[in-house]
Amino acid sequence: MTVDKDFKIAEVDKRIYGSFIEHLGRAVYGGIYEPDHETADEQGFREDVIKLVKELQVPIVRYPGGNMVSAYNWEDGVGPKQDRPRRLELAWRVTETNEIGTNEFMDWAKKVNTDVMMAVNLGTRGIDAARNLIEYMNHPGGTYWSDLRRSHGSELPYNIKTWCLGNEMDGPWQVGHKTADEYGRLAAETAKAMRLVDPTIELVSCGSSNSNMPTFPEWEAKTLEHTYEFADYISLHQYYGNRSHDTANFIAKSLDMDNFIQTVIATCDYMKAKKRSKKTINLSFDEWNVWFHSREQDKEIEPWTIAPPQLEDVYTFEDAILVGSMLNTMLKHADRVKMACMAQLVNVIAPIMTETGGGIFKQTIFYPYYYTSVYGRGIALSPVVHSPKYDSKDFTDVPYLDTSVVYNEVKNEVVIFATNRHLEMPLQVDIDIRSFEGYNVVEHVVLEKDNVKATNSLKKEQIKPHYNGESYVQNGNVTTILPKLSWNMIRLNKR
Ligand code: AHR
After folding, report:
1. How far apart are CA 85 and CA 481, in angstroms?
2. What's the confidence (pLDDT) of residue 43?
3. Residue-level pLDDT at 495
4. Residue 65, preceding bond cis, omega within 30 degrees?
5. Nearest to residue 225, comparing CAs of 195, 177, 270?
6. Atom of ligand 1 nearest to the CA of 289
7. In angstroms, rounded to a whole number, what is the distance separating the alpha carbons of residues 98 and 77?
8. N or C: which end of the chain has fewer CB within 10 A?
């Protein structure tokens, strides 16, 4: 492998390390918010959760959905709590108490030092609710909705910059599901009205719910016909699973993600050419993760309960390996993927798990997310890689070595994220770092485990990194040994 500072992809937009909190399951109630918990602050937010979210350095959090937003009345969640209605929440068929709404969430976001990416309801509602919401959130005062916000205790506007124009509107499961033309028209007109309220915002047009949708990528092409001049980003969502327990195939699924990204870029650029536009649409991969463990048990949930445990996947070691590669994939596309949200953040398909009334623990996937978020900031470089390859059920030519590289000029640091996909053998990697003279290994963090199905729990963290990785520099080359099936971070520094 060769790493050179001139092989630049782009500056990494830190927002690719974003996450997502939906009013779903125990993400909000019993997750970020639990007023009776021993660590609850004066507003009822769990401080043990705040601490771990801050550790992850999450730069942006998408809110309030997800599927939930497509039937959500944002007005239900503002104003005096005793006046807020309980509603049937249709996406997940639970009862929403509205105890937490927009203002409380903005307070929480401030506590964890994150920005908010807010989604508007384009399922049951549309232009009117969206323009009122942005007036409530971003207009300084002197009008009905902005003064209402001030009367609710937020004197200053929130100035939310990034807004999603609905959620997964291509999906037949979505309340208010639309055809591409129906969505495209509504999204364009909603965008226009929102921009009239606040011209400084950035907007995300809904892309496909996943790359297997029968309408992909026609959905992107048709919707962009309408939204191209109004939107700045198009969204991508993708979750992977391993129901067939085929590890070699599962950990190769980041190749599918790569293909998905390339296809969306091609579609955006086709539309750019067609419209003779000077503007480039970038990508917001605003839902991504592994999700399949909890699907069966979620069918047992009693309808209309309040905050039941839903989508509570308990992640395995092999899930963490794939998550590491999904992060590598986005870094490799840092020139076009400018935002991304690991879905989700707490309890619901999440890196952080809590027990209601009890403790907290880090899931296996916490670790690749943590290290990539904290150390993967700077310029994404494109390494030249020669790796042996394998074939799996769905993929051919899967490189055993999956890697991404970030150069942090300010810190004089080169960070190599590297996965060895080989299930049996370690991989020796020889890295020519020719333009990084005088750099030495600071640390080599390794995530490895013999049992690919090993998980973490409140009682025991079976999966956590160790710092005994084997890497050394000799004559301007780094030699590193990646243990069999492992995720690694090799940090080089010049002092
Ligand atoms: O993240 C869980 C769900 O997955 C979201 O609500 C939806 O947008 C997607 O289908």
Report:
1. 58
2. 98
3. 79
4. no
5. 270
6. 1
7. 5
8. C
Element containing residue 331 per DSSP (H, E): helix 317-332
| 457 pLDDT above the threshold of 90 | yes
Residue 89 Cβ contacting ligand 1 at under 6 Å:
no
Decide if 168 is catalytic.
yes
414 - beta bridge partners?
407, 492
Whose C-alpha lies nearest to ligand 1, atom 2?
66
- How many CB atoms are located within 10 Å of the residue 360 CB? 18
Does residue 359 contact residue 458 with C-beta atoms inside 8 Å?
yes
pLDDT score recorded for residue 196: 98
Q: How far apart are CA 150 and CA 12, in angstroms?
A: 36
65-84 pLDDT, tens digit each: 999 999 999 999 999 999 99
β-strand pairing of 337-343 with 18-20: parallel
Closest CA to 160 of 226, 110, 227: 110
Tell whether the model's pLDDT for residue 227 goes beyond 90.
yes
Q: Which helix (H) or strand (E) holds 189?
A: helix 180-197
Structure tokens at 383: 């390494």
Residue 486, pLDDT above cutoff 90: yes
Minimum CA distance residue for ligand 1 atom 8:
66
Q: Determine the distance separating the centroid of ligand 1 and the alpha carbon of 194, expressed in angstroms.
A: 24
* Ligand 1 pocket member 170 (CB < 6 A): no
Q: What is the pLDDT of residue 141?
A: 98
- Examine the residue annotation and report whether 38 is marked as an active-site residue of this protein: no
Computed over every residue of the chain, the mean pLDDT equals 98
E strands present in 194-329? 202-205, 233-240, 282-290
Which amino acid is present at 189? E
Cα–Cα distances (Å) from 446 to 46, 250, 319, 491, in that order, read 30, 20, 15, 12
**pLDDT score of 150:** 98
Q: Which of 34, 104, 220, 287 is catalytic?
A: 287
CB 133 within 8 A of CB 78: no
344 lines ligand 1 (CB under 6 A): yes
| Helices vs strands, H then E, count in the chain | 10, 23
Distance in angstroms (rounded) separating the CA atoms of residues 239 and 226: 27
Does the structure show a pLDDT above 90 at 476?
no
Name the residue with the closest Cα to ligand 1, atom 1.
343
Structure confidence at residue 405 (pLDDT): 98
Orientation of helix 366-375 relative to helix 47-56, angle to 10°? 60
- Residue 275 is given by DSSP the state T
CB 486 within 8 A of CB 318: no
Amino acid at the residue 482: L
Q: What is the pLDDT of residue 101?
A: 98
